[in-house]
Amino acid sequence: MGYFLCGFIIAWLWCSSYTHKMIALECERLGGFFLNDKTYKCHLIVDHSQDTLTPQVIVDAERRSNDEVQ
Question: How many domains does the chain have?
Fold first, then answer.
């Protein structure tokens, strides 16, 4: 019984990790994913105060373009 429970926990953790990775991959590739009859749309949230790889010029341009759309 102990082997079964250990195997079950390992399988559950592995499947959970796989599911999260697949949803993230579908969101990056397609902008969403579907589950049965429902379709979900994904939005990427980036905290630019912590992102040091993006030059400030690009961050400012994105903010201006977002302001124009709204």
Answer: 1
